[in-house]
């Protein structure tokens, strides 16, 4: 029997002590602890890694502090488009939804795809139709609304919005000169969980509202199996950051591949992806990963990442800064 | 200078000499040769691998014999939903579109995403809006129509359609007992190209109409970087087959990862993915791959795969059967 463990993240970015007030910090810590305790409980009761990560991400989606489900960021058009994925390392079964606008819990739709569809990935209205047929809860866009995300969006539009709208070459060139057209703090949010259960089975789940002011239809790494979410019998990985670079490096699968083929440890494999491969193409963010021995690593190349670990039978651990 | 080479595929499945009449066979061979000659010309004139694979897949999309662009299969709803991706191994730049319904050439939209967007993947209407803003050609659904695909769809609906519509547990259980609810011949179509140019740079492109009678919104491996399309500086890969299994095994990236980390040859790496890893989870199909030395491999675990190779300065080679 392995000592079961769950790790979670709530996004990475320029999260610094200086920019965080004490009340806000307490809110985040309490929210992360609440989610970890729930995931830990699933594992303690003999639940599977797959059940633990699904439950943790469902709770993170329901928490307005994080950019997934309630509290999701807005697209350039002022709409919400959510992505989620879940993968079971024991079977390589996976489910994902992209660009959904009416689902309360995209991760539950991803789980339903995993369990009850011959397909793995559904996009847009087709994903919603599938979820609705499965009896999952639909919401109207006001469900996702939070004042904080609305204000972020308005600031993002004011600073870079029109340039992003037109994708014109001059504007993109102008943006390229600045490292970050939008405050990175507003850009990186995504939630995720990885777990190893008592049987040594692994699972990962990831969910996001994407990046503030993103183009309508943009899909990041979250629902892309192998990029923002991946689990097999050597590692389970959930990522957060500049999704495009995680797609291009197939980041989550690369963590597992380096362990399987190059014999790296979980920690060293994840470090190379986050500290070397992603920065080489301008990728910022982090990931959480667990292996079948219950080792956990949570590297990030940003100032901070909301994160935590809970081993069954031990106190939970929550961290924010680097 | 490397001897530049391009390889293409037009889908894999139960393609047997017995089921193929002589005229049909000649049509396929002529079409594949035409595409290979065009790709070879791009490379011979000093064009990049990226340009060669884009042009080859554009031509395959325009050819009604193959399941991409004109000649795409129909969804359960009788609509067309196309996916495409392209990746430049030299830079890890990638572009992809999923679930598009109005683009004549999805691969050109993917290429535009690669070149002119900060994003990598666009889905549905957002992808079409992006492509339209880039001046790409829009079509109405009748453009994609071919009598052959319409008839396939009608047969598929008659044999399994209602079951797939409802995704109800009983119907899925009944289907699970049969290995193939729909004739596999009708299920596997996708086109793709991989190339190594004179500078040793690699690229891959893949495009598809998906699987006949698929659920609306289903996205297969084609636009998923790492699954149906991938290129880096060790290998470029384009896949075709039961897309869900290619997503779950992150098949295209796994070919490159085994070369990079385990030191396998291109041929052996691709063989393990197609002949061992995919069959282990019920995956059927094949892939084409090229490495930076210009080695090419085209393995498949089905009866046949439309495929061909063209090295600059040599006659083109086209094959259909196993």
CATH topology of chain A: Glutamine Phosphoribosylpyrophosphate, subunit 1, domain 1
Quaternary assembly: homodimer
Which parts of chain A are unreliable, with pLDDT below 50 for 5 consecutive residues or more?
A: 161-186
Give me the side-by-side strand order of the main sheet of chain A.
4-3-2-6-5-1-12-13
Secondary-structure class of chain A: alpha+beta
Helix coverage percent of chain A: 25-40%
Give me the Rg of chain A, rounded. 18 Å
Shape of chain A: globular
CATH level-1 class of chain A: Alpha Beta
N-to-C CA distance of chain A = 33 Å
Q: What labels would you give this structure?
A:
homodimer; 322 residues; Glutamine Phosphoribosylpyrophosphate, subunit 1, domain 1; 8-stranded mixed beta sheet; 4-stranded antiparallel beta sheet; 10 helices; 13 strands; 39% helix
Topology readout:
Two copies of one chain form a homodimer.
Chain A: E1 5-13, H1 22-44, H2 49-62, E2 82-88, E3 93-100, H3 106-116, E4 121-123, H4 124-133, H5 147-166, H6 169-177, H7 184-187, E5 191-196, E6 202-208, E7 218-219, E8 229-231, E9 235-241, H8 243-248, H9 251-262, H10 266-280, E10 285-291, E11 296-297, E12 304-311, E13 317-321
Parallel strand pairs in A: 3-4
Antiparallel strand pairs in A: 1-5, 1-12, 2-3, 2-6, 5-6, 8-9, 9-10, 10-11, 12-13
Explain what this protein looks like in three dimensions.
Two copies of one chain form a homodimer. Chain A has 322 residues and is of the alpha+beta class. Chain A has one domain: Glutamine Phosphoribosylpyrophosphate, subunit 1, domain 1. Helices cover 39% and strands 23% of the residues of chain A. Chain A has ten helices and 13 strands. In chain A, the strands form two sheets. Chain A has an eight-stranded mixed β-sheet. In chain A, strands 8-9-10-11 form a four-stranded antiparallel β-sheet. The first copy, chain A, starts with a strand and ends with a strand. About 8% of the residues of chain A have low confidence. At the A-B interface, strand 3, strand 4, helix 4, helix 6 and strand 7 of A face strand 3, strand 4, helix 4, helix 6 and strand 7 of B. Strand 7 of chain A pairs antiparallel with strand 4 of chain B.
